[in-house]
Structure to design on (264 residues):
């Protein structure tokens, strides 16, 4: 924070004061006004990870001249501190910077930076699926697969038979899932009730906007978000599974997994 106080007589004289910590300032003899620069503390950066993070906002500042003071009077000076950085990886947002104040002049502290989004968060997964859905063109059937999808050895030989049995009113179908509770439909398909998995699925092009809405509005994992709408959509799952998830480390759960016991 910087002040330059001026004397009315002679006017060219000036007295400059710079403050780096909170204190008080007494206007010297002959001072009638000050020029001022009041800078607030900047916000702390967000907790970082491999996906990046938000930088802290700059502290606000106010600059001006002709602010009236009275010689001999004491004025409060508050120097705002910078915000604390967030913990990583993706642990927390940075905190806001503190305000700086001279008498009745206040500069607001900068906002804290947002934390980086962890790849293991539901949001990161949903955003990836939303981006794929947004690229689907009208009348285009796109099979969306995650990087741990494992196809049955005879997939190419049996897929046509499965697709011939797919109920024509489908909104979404999965080529594999963990089936906790389903309702049988025909030889190759069951209706979704309580299932887990989004490693290989297709959304009807006419329903893409609906499923983007579902993914955006629900804070759960993407497969849970879809499942919560299964009573309002026609969702079918291949049975037995044509595609399963490989065993190994799951970024989502941050642990080793072995969910699928073959193609069931």
């Amino acid at each position: 924070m910087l002040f330059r106080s001026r004397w009315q007589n002679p006017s060219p004289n000036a007295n400059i004061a710079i403050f780096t910590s909170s204190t008080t300032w007494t206007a010297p003899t002959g001072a009638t006004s000050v020029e001022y620069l009041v800078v607030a503390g900047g916000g702390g950066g967000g907790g970082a990870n491999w996906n990046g993070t938000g930088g802290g906002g700059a502290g606000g500042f106010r600059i001006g001249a002709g602010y009236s003071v009275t010689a001999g009077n004491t004025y409060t000076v508050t120097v705002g501190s910078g915000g604390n950085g967030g913990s990583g990886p993706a642990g927390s947002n940075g905190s806001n910077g503190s305000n700086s104040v001279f008498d009745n002049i206040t500069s607001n502290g900068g906002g804290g930076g947002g934390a980086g989004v962890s790849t293991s968060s539901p949001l990161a997964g949903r955003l990836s699926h939303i981006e794929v859905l947004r690229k689907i063109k009208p009348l285009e059937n796109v099979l969306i697969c995650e990087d741990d999808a494992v196809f049955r050895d005879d997939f190419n030989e049996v897929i046509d038979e499965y697709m011939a049995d797919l109920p024509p009113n489908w909104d979404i179908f999965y080529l594999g899932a963990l089936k906790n509770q389903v309702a049988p439909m025909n030889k190759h398909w069951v209706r979704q009730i309580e299932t887990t998995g989004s490693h290989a699925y297709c959304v009807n092009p006419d329903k893409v906007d609906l499923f983007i809405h579902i993914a955006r509005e629900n804070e759960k994992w993407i497969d849970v978000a879809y499942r919560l709408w299964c009573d309002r959509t026609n969702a079918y799952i291949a049975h037995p599974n044509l595609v399963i998830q490989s065993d190994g480390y799951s970024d989502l759960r941050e642990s080793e997994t072995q969910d699928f016991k073959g193609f069931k």
In short: The CA atoms of residues 36 and 152 lie 73 Å apart. Residues 5-11 have pLDDT under 50 and may be disordered. Residues 2-107 form one domain.
